[in-house]
Specification:
Elements lengths: L17 H16 L5 E2 L13 H10 L5 E6 L6 H14 L2 E2 L8 E5 L12 E5 L13 H9 L4 H14 L10 E3 L3 E3 L18 E6 L4 E5 L5 E3 L27 E5 L5 E5 L2 H8 L10 H4 L7
Parallel strand pairs: 2-3, 2-4, 4-5, 5-8
Antiparallel strand pairs: 1-9, 6-7, 6-10, 8-9, 11-12
Helix pairs in contact: 1-2
Length: 301
């Protein structure tokens, strides 16, 4: 039998076939043109199960080029199992350079965090999204939520937030706090903590969201207005880490993980592993700036 030597590799660049990548890119262009709007897409089969980052992977593989530099984080960490496996897969399917350095990367894929280091205009930030529909908690039927978005009828959402405040004294939403994009659509920013939500507002980078299981794409273009939902007398607030600081660096103006050592003592550590490494090496990474972060007073270590 004559061996077929037409192709160097037995798979397409970035794994997904070119027709499907074009379809995903067309849907992404629509999502960018209508900030916050959920665009249905094909969500092709991948060699990983849905719910483990297929949506973000679809977006990354559809837009990545041979000259890109790829970084991926999971809950702020470069070294988690999910991040390592997907990084290896993207590298093997594309041959692109990978990095842990936020500033060096051109495409950053994330699960549940935005980097502490400020994103730049030459970067694309890709989110793995488990549930793209912010109204799912107040409306179970998809046809109804689509109609509510089309009519900008968000009364049920506002009533839900009001009921939470009346019952608990605060809006009891942590990760995935709903936002209004460009004064039009309410959007689920993926399960990022409240700490990260203000960093979406007028960001220099493109933010692309992929929900593979739910077959939805949406986006926030650069320099787009993104506001967390709040009432005039009940304001949005970020997580409160007052009185705590990173046990390794002494820095306190970053999102912190709570750790318990073997002796039972409680300590805090900066969640973003690359930001932590840079501070540990006495580097000065440029952090996001927003009104909530600016309110935190500087402390001497």
């Amino acid at each position: 039998m004559v061996e077929n030597k037409k192709y160097v590799n037995k798979y397409n660049f970035a794994f997904i076939d070119e027709a499907t990548k074009k379809e995903i890119r067309r849907k992404l262009l629509k999502a960018i043109a209508i900030p916050g709007y959920q665009v249905p897409y094909s969500s092709p089969e991948m060699p990983i199960a849905r719910g483990w980052g297929t949506g973000g992977l679809h977006v990354t593989l559809a837009i990545i080029g041979a000259d890109d530099i790829f970084k991926i984080i999971d809950q702020g960490s470069d070294a988690s199992v999910n991040a390592c496996n997907l990084r290896n897969f993207v590298r093997d399917m594309t041959g692109v350079k990978t990095t842990f350095d936020t500033a060096e990367a051109t495409i950053i894929q994330t699960r549940h965090r935005i980097t502490e280091e400020e994103l730049q205009a030459n970067q694309i930030f890709v989110y793995q999204v488990p549930q793209p529909e912010p109204l799912r908690g107040v409306e179970r039927y998809e046809n109804k939520t689509r109609q509510m978005h089309g009519e900008a009828d968000y009364a049920k959402m506002w009533v839900s937030l009001y009921e939470q405040f009346i019952t608990h004294g605060d809006i009891m939403l942590g990760a995935g706090y709903p936002v209004k994009v460009n004064d039009r659509y309410i959007m689920a920013p993926s399960p990022i903590p409240r700490w990260d939500v203000p960093n979406l507002n007028h960001s220099k980078a493109i933010h692309l969201f992929g929900a593979g299981r739910e077959k939805r794409l949406y986006a926030v273009p650069p320099h787009t207005k993104v506001e967390a939902l709040e009432f005039e007398d009940v304001k949005f607030h970020i997580e409160n880490f007052n009185g705590t600081k990173c046990v390794k660096t002494g820095y306190h103006k970053a999102f912190l993980d709570e750790l318990y050592f073997d002796d039972g003592s409680k300590h805090f550590l900066i969640n973003d592993s690359n930001f932590l490494d840079k501070l540990s090496e006495n580097l000065q990474p440029v952090q996001h700036s927003n009104p909530y972060l600016n309110q935190i007073k500087d402390e001497k270590n």
